[in-house]
Amino acid sequence: MKKKPETTTPVARQLSVQAVISAALEHGSITRTRLAEITGLSKQTMSEVVRDLVRDGWLREGGQETGSVGRRATIYEFQESACYVMGVDLGGLNVRAAVAALNGNVVAEDVEETDRRGGIYVIDQIAALVSRMCARFGIARRGVRMGVIAVSGVHQQSTGAILAASNISGMAEIDFTGLLAERLGLPLFVENAVDMATRGERWRGGAQSVDNFVFFGHGAGIGMGAVIDGKLLKGRRGAIGEIAFLPIGANAFDSRNFGVGPLEAEVGAAAMARKFEGYGGQAGASARDIFDALEQGREAAEIVVDETARLVALAVASVAAILDPELVIMGGQIGVHPAMIERVTRFLQRCSPIPVRIEAASLGPRAQLIGALGAGIELAYSQLFGMSALSSRSAP
Predict the structure, then answer these.
(1) Whether residue 292 sits in one domain with residue 225
(2) SS3 call for 142
(3) Beta-bridge mates of residue 226
(4) Looking at the domain assignment, is residue 5 inside a domain?
(5) Where does residue 255 rank: exposed (0-12), middle (13-18), buried (19+ CB within 10 A)?
(6) One domain for residues 355 and 373
(7) What is the biggest distance separating any 2 CA atoms in the chain, rounded to whole angstroms?
(8) Cβ distance 332 to 170 under 8 Å?
(9) Which of 63, 88, 336, 363 is buried most, with the most CB atoms less than 10 Å from its CB?
(10) Which pLDDT score is estimated for 168?
């Protein structure tokens, strides 16, 4: 009896494409035989899917397998230029931008000082930075399909404004998201900076094998991201981790602390500078100046760093009691400093019986940028190869 030709439904074909792309992204160079072993697809389906992906520019032939007897198998590779994503970390001091392929390979990266005028000037700056970067590294702009920007503050989706972005002026008065997306010519998603740093450490940093951890971003301000059971927590308004508003440090019942929060009012860079001057240190000192003074044995620096670490330890103890993390990663210019980590660890042992490991962020100042790229890759993959992509292609 003649065998009927194999047929597939649109959903089955989409799942097959998903499986092949995922295997190619994970394993790099790979043969059709190996793809079939990994995905469990039949020889006919595999041949059809690979043919279509080569035709559409997602895969390319990368030579032939060597060292085997008989007919050599063709090796296929993911075509990086088929899809790029852009990540931007917009900070008060610097703006970092990078472009990565869907396989996670970072193909371009640049950084420059943030335009102090803020607002529309920052939008112009990011657009110009991305344009120069793509031109310098030979990246076709049409190949960049998605953008994610990490910012401090709260993104208001209804207006596109960035609220409570105290380190950059003029962000609450404009449709930041809409104007920047228009200038860049691609879909743009805005995410909280600390959340992106948390995602970065989970994807490429010190928490790759940790399913329960929190990230403390401590610099000009203080914030937290949390991964529990392998998932980044967001909350109703995307505001999980606003530990600046914990009733620790300044008077929680004083409405003057409602702007930055009681904790941030006492542990942020400005608070440390104010205290340092009050204890006899120089006026207008930066966090780096204070840590330099600490290394020199200055008493004022010792007091300030101890007081700050004590309050941060109370915040860590509060979070540990609620979320039970295995690991606390300290990031930001203040949080990542070894002297701060040592003191926070010491004070934590005195105020909490819950054992928590504390480590410095392994990605340093790139954590937020790496997290933004990871988020962009996930979004792009979902739109291109997820079931939502099938629905959009099937819609009339």
Answers:
(1) yes
(2) helix
(3) 214
(4) no
(5) exposed
(6) no
(7) 95
(8) no
(9) 88
(10) 82
331: exposed, middle or buried (Cβ count in 10 Å: 0-12, 13-18, 19+): buried
pLDDT at 65: 65
Q: What percent of the chain has pLDDT over 70?
A: 91
The 10s digit of each residue's pLDDT in 330-350 is 999 999 999 999 999 999 999
SS3 for 148?
Answer: strand
Confirm if 376 and 148 have CB atoms less than 8 A apart: yes
Question: For residues 343 and 233, what is the distance between their CA atoms, to the nearest angstrom?
Answer: 28
88 and 74 share one domain: no
Higher model confidence: residue 28 or residue 331? Answer: 331
Same domain, 305 and 387: no
DSSP track, 31-98: EHHHHHHHH---HHHHHHHHHHHHHTTSEEEEEE--S-SSSPPEEEEE-GGG-EEEEEEE-SSEEEEE
Residue 3 lies in a domain: no
Boundary of a domain, candidates 31, 55, 78: 78
166 and 287 fall within a common domain: no
* Amino acid identity for residue 173 in this structure: E
Are 213 and 354 within one domain? yes
The C-alpha atoms of residue 22 and residue 19 are separated, in whole angstroms, by 5
- Asked if the model's pLDDT at residue 370 lies above 80, the reply is yes
Residue-wise pLDDT for 56-71, tens only, equals 888 888 766 665 555 6
- Asked if residue 232 belongs to a domain, the reply is yes
Question: For the segment 127-166, what is each residue's pLDDT rounded down to a tens digit?
Answer: 999 999 999 999 988 889 999 999 987 777 778 888 766 6
Rounded mean pLDDT of the chain?
87
Residues 266 and 321 grouped into a single domain: yes
The CATH number covering residue 222 comes to 3.30.420.40
Domain of 146, in residue numbers: 84-196+368-394
Q: Does residue 176 share a domain with residue 138?
A: yes
